[in-house]
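Run log, item B.
One chain of 390 residues. Sequence copied directly from the ordering sheet:
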Amino acid sequence: MESVKRLLYRYMIGKCTSGELEELRRWAEGSPERQALLHRLADEDYITRQLARRELVRIERPMEDMSRRISASRRRLWSRFVSVAAVVAVVIGIGVACHIYNVGDGISLSTGNAPMAEADDSVKVRRLDEILPGSVRARLTSTSGSAVTLRAQDTSQVGNRILLSHNCPVDRVPELCLDVPRGGEFKVVLEDSTEVWLNSESTLRYPEVFSPGERRVQVTGEAYFVVKHDVSRPFYVETPEQTIRVYGTSFNVRAYADDPIVYTTLEEGSISLTRRDFHSGEVMLSPGHQAMLDRNNPKVEMKVVDPSVITGWRNGRFVFEEQPLASIMRDLSRWYDITYEFAETELENIVFMGSIPRYADFATAISIIEKSGGLKFITHGDKVLITRQL
């Protein structure tokens, strides 16, 4: 069933090979319901309508099962069933059975709510719809110490390139640091025409003019690169843990300090990476592959991914593939510049898949999570508390 889920997803996005199409044909053979599902998945307009109606799906188990202890073998079988159901739910709008990931031989889940802190009338409560999404902004600093805050008007369109405005008052110095704060994003074009999109809470260090022998930049946080090919000047991207050699390509690197894993995802072209914190060999990536670097493990893991999911943030959406709420909230907190707290630690492990709009206000964005996950978001001062719906 896990393979069917994967094939349905690839079929929906139009990436099935001829062999995979034949496998799906055999799977649907003799079942009018399965054949009808394949017809719906092939209808782009239908998928668009359904995604608009139900953008985020919680993968969950029926309530009567919540208090049971489930053996590992049964849990694995249920997980496979739910993975298929989640894909089907996105495109045909049906309910999904519940699945909460955990570790150990079994799990025991409580349906009770954690006690809520009493409201303090002296603290001003901010409404969720007053929490606005991030915007185009950054701070550019030179090695001489001069700095300027950048907004959307500090860029200009030249053909298909976005450049810093000539009126931007920054010294002409060898190295610059572009710092995008929480609640910000920014795109810059380097002197070689390489384009870089920076997500919230990210930095890019780069020279104003690259040297004749190589092009080298440093990144923290998340960035998407479209690198200009230049065989005479190899392009390197450094994070604290790795060095990426780029061969003229587009890729995404996610290296937030509070994430346990550094993700490098190749969309087109070719790149290689070498760890800086452990002595290891060079790892080559091909398009559609993601390298996962665990900061506490010298081994680099590889897996096949859909790059459009990883780079959804650049195209106006948060896209999640079976992602726990703890990870989702880290992304949302950076973009909306909020602090948050879970009323129960179990809520961190609720898994979702789907997407939510990036430029909506916070109330609109989390309403999708609330409806799909049976959750409630409330504010107390500048903090957002996440609890179960009563």
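Observations after the first pass:
- The chain is about 25% helix and 35% strand.
- The first strand starts at residue 56 and ends at 58.
Flagged for discussion on Thursday.
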